[in-house]
Design goal:
Elements lengths: L3 E5 L7 H12 L4 E4 L4 H4 L8 E3 L8 H4 L7 H6 L8 E6 L13 E6 L10 H7 L2 H22 L4 E4 L2 H11 L4 E2 L20 E4 L8 H11 L3 E4 L5 H7 L4 E5 L3 H10 L2 E4 L7 H8 L4 E4 L4 H4 L6 E4 L4 H11 L6 H8 L4 H16 L2
Parallel strand pairs: 1-2, 1-4, 2-3, 4-5, 5-6, 6-7, 8-9, 8-11, 9-10, 11-12, 12-13
Organism: Cetobacterium somerae ATCC BAA-474
GO molecular function, one term: glycosyltransferase activity
Keywords: Transferase
Amino acid sequence: MRKVAIIHDWLVNYGGAERVVEAFLEIYPNADIYTLVYDEKKIGATFSKEKVKTTFIQKFPKATKIYTKLLPFMPYAFEELDLSEYDLVISSSSCCAKGVVTGPNTKHISYIHSPMRYAWDLYHDYKKRSGKLTSFFMSIFMKNLRQWDYTSSQRIDIILANSNYVAKRINKFWNRECQVVYPPVDIDRLSPNGKESEDFYVVFSRFVSYKRIDLAIEACKKLNRKLVVIGDGEQRDYLKSLANNNITFTGRISDEEVKDYLQRCKAMIFCAEEDFGIIPLEAQACGRPVIAYGKGGALETIEDKITGIFFDKQEIESVIEGILKFEKLKLCTRKIHEHAMKFSRERFKKEIERVVKNGLFK
């Protein structure tokens, strides 16, 4: 019986990356989980305290709240993990988890959600949006972090990317070839409601700047269209200041309430450039199309003029053009739903098992 360890960047909230870890655990229920920091109150119901081992950073005061500010310590924290007793290590990483050190008799398979964007392609963007002190230290520290990121990537036996978009960046920044395995989407609980759509669009997202929710709000304002904005985050007050009476904010709501909105909406508007993007697939699983920015992972999860439509630029007028083009289309709910079914959790688990089997017996 193989002894398996699952490594994840941090366990402080439940999102798409945590669904991947959850699926790994379904394949290997006896695996141990290692992570930088763990918030039992927020995620204990999904990942029990008994299963999770943390790094020394967990002992820092308020570690689960300030962990993102401790980036300089993260490479050391993961390299300090002793994984010598394991036959198989599977890491789930968009930061430093993939940098664990494994011995020659341990196979390390790393599922990469993204190379560190703040160290590579979005470095200048993050730096511009940072304060003077943070920007100064970024200039000094990021060079060393890039070197570590590249070096640690060379220790991985098999690299899996969550999209072709991410695979290209892995090849550019790490000079590594990889396989693409699309992440699991929780589509079993999602389906069309069998009714006609209602007269509103939906945005479902964390309220952070790169999601560009502002574009959807401004476009719907100009077109006098109803928009329901689901979620919360640091941009809450700013986004609400842009809204008029046609824009409704729900805040954080239950999965069932989200499902209800997705089933009833005319379409989802998705303005972000994502590495993959699970939420558009959740809308499609409900039989609803997506009006999306035509870059990044959306190009792999949405079929143009079949399950949605693309707009070209992250600009208000481009979003408006996309909405107007969409409103002239007649799309098939059944085809949209069937397309989403290709990204199921069971499909993901079978692909991971195949990769592991092939990797262990080479």
